[in-house]
């Protein structure tokens, strides 16, 4: 058969030309190879910029990657890892761009859980009026469990003062104050210096070593803030799990979850807060108390969260009434409890990741893997 002629198949009147199809396939194959090579070179350049800590340049390259690239989630989570680490170390200050990384991953359908609860209608309990009986009945948690008590923190603070004063007192009784008194005074001054200048970091570390359950409570408290903040669409910038870590990073305060609420920031500039923004902020603040109550049957941390919520609600113009503030707190903690119950697998995976000191992007990848729509 002459290969230069079109091959006739099935019937004399039905002709298929094979050579043009082969030619087109070769052209498409060459184009796909060029695109693959271009994508690989972009990924290599992205990794190079990322290793150098150039987050902005790496983010520009990331946005140029094809949307269908299978590397999207992986390189996006790597970008979040580096950006969060540098942000905590204050080597990178653009928290707005960290939020833009979330947005880009969301646009590429890599983050299905981020911002999944973006309206009141999607909340587990959208009705705003929540009495005490309604809270206990729906949450299935005793009311007392949701009232934070600072027994753990107060215990190690009181222990430090008692030990110092006790040494001074018994040294005088035993007539060995020349030996014991200087030790007691030094311990007392060390305790005061630690509380004032070091944010209680040293005594907190001692307490956590003596009572490991306290360390777990702090971790699970912050995991509650982390997960709920993420689901409500507030980009998490990082998490600090101890006063010592906070001190070493130069961050004021003790343990905490650092999130960025763009709507809250913009509305604070205008001096007007919408109900949606207040609701979102309230739920995120109450999530730590909710997590502790669910895991341990009693919240110990959370006084600062309650104080922050009270400060915001009473500073509104016009200020909220006492009953309205209490109702908002009850409603917010109920939402957080119901969200955490539904996303129990994602919460447990996040707690495990934080206990193993996984970076931000890895934590988010685990949330996405265990998220329940």
UniProtKB/TrEMBL annotation:
Per its UniProt record, what InterPro entries does this chain match? Peptidase_M41-like
Q: Name one GO biological process term.
A: proteolysis
GO MF annotations, alphabetized? ATP binding; ATP-dependent peptidase activity; metalloendopeptidase activity
Top-rank lineage group of the source organism: Eukaryota
Identification of the protein by name = Uncharacterized protein
Please tell me the species this chain comes from. Galdieria yellowstonensis
């Amino acid at each position: 058969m002459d290969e230069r002629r079109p091959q006739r198949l099935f019937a004399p009147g039905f002709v298929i030309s094979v050579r043009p199809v082969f030619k087109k396939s070769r052209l498409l194959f060459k184009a796909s190879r060029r695109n693959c090579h271009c994508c690989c070179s972009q990924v290599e350049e992205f990794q190079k910029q990322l290793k150098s800590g150039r987050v902005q340049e790496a983010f520009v390259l990331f946005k140029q990657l094809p949307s269908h690239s299978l590397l999207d989630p992986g390189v996006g989570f790597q970008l979040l890892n580096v950006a969060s680490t540098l942000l905590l170390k204050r080597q990178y200050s653009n928290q707005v761009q960290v939020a833009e990384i979330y947005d880009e991953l969301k646009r590429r359908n890599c983050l299905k859980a981020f911002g999944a609860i973006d309206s009141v209608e999607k909340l587990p309990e959208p009705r705003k009026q929540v009495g005490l009986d309604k809270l206990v009945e729906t949450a299935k948690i005793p009311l007392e469990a949701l009232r934070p008590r600072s027994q753990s923190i107060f215990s190690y603070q009181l222990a430090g003062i008692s030990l110092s004063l006790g040494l001074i007192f018994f040294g005088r009784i035993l007539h060995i104050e020349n030996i014991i008194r200087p030790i007691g005074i030094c311990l007392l001054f060390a305790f005061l210096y630690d509380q004032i200048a070091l944010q209680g970091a040293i005594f907190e570390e001692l307490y956590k070593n003596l009572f490991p359950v306290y360390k777990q409570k702090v971790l699970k408290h912050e995991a509650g803030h982390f997960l709920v903040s993420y689901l409500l669409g507030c980009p998490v910038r990082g998490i600090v799990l101890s006063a010592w870590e906070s001190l070493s990073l130069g961050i004021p305060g003790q343990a905490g979850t650092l999130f960025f609420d763009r709507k809250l920031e913009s509305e604070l500039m205008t001096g007007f807060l919408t109900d949606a923004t207040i609701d979102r902020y309230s739920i995120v603040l109450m999530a730590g108390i909710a997590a502790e109550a669910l895991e341990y049957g009693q919240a110990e941390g959370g006084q600062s969260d309650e104080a922050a919520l009270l400060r915001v609600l009473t500073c509104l113009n016009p200020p909220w009434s006492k009953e309205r503030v209490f109702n908002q707190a009850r409603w917010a903690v109920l939402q957080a409890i119901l969200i955490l119950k539904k996303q129990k697998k994602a919460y447990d995976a996040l707690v495990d990741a934080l206990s193993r000191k996984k970076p931000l992007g890895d934590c988010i990848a685990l949330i996405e893997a265990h998220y329940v729509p």
